[in-house]
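Standup notes
- DV: blocked on the single-chain target, sequence here:
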Amino acid sequence: MEYFYTMFEMAKAGEKQGIIFFIALYCFLIMSISLFGQWRMRQWPSTIGKLITAGTRVFGAHDLSPSDTQYRANALYEFEIRGKKYQGKRVSPWIFITNKNASAILEHQLNSIDRQGDRVRIFYNPDNPKKSTLLKPGWFGICVSIAIWIGPLIGYWISYYR
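- DV (later): unblocked, structure below
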């Protein structure tokens, strides 16, 4: 605890080591929660449902220039679990908001949906089926999360204790 107090005092005084320590700690804590959630989502069961719409939509205000307008993936689907009907909107565990220049990310998400016509595979939380998504967290996303999870702590350690 004395170390945390020392780092707190350093951060409060504006010293680089204290600030970087708390940034690394914040990344570690937030990404721990994210990794736990991603791992749980990978265990979610799936069902087949009906895709009503899928595409991209403008996010926020519509700018005059397409390269300045922001977009996100958009979907609406319905499915049934234990006799109860649900609707979902979430395409991916990762919510990307991008401009027209990087819209290939959104197209990749939409093309990755497991579908045959208007039938789609839907992953849902078995404890709360209204939480659903069309894509499970992939290994690439989990690896990126691990890098954000542990990278800042390793960088901190290398910078100050190597």
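- Follow-up: DSSP finds four helices and seven strands in the chain.
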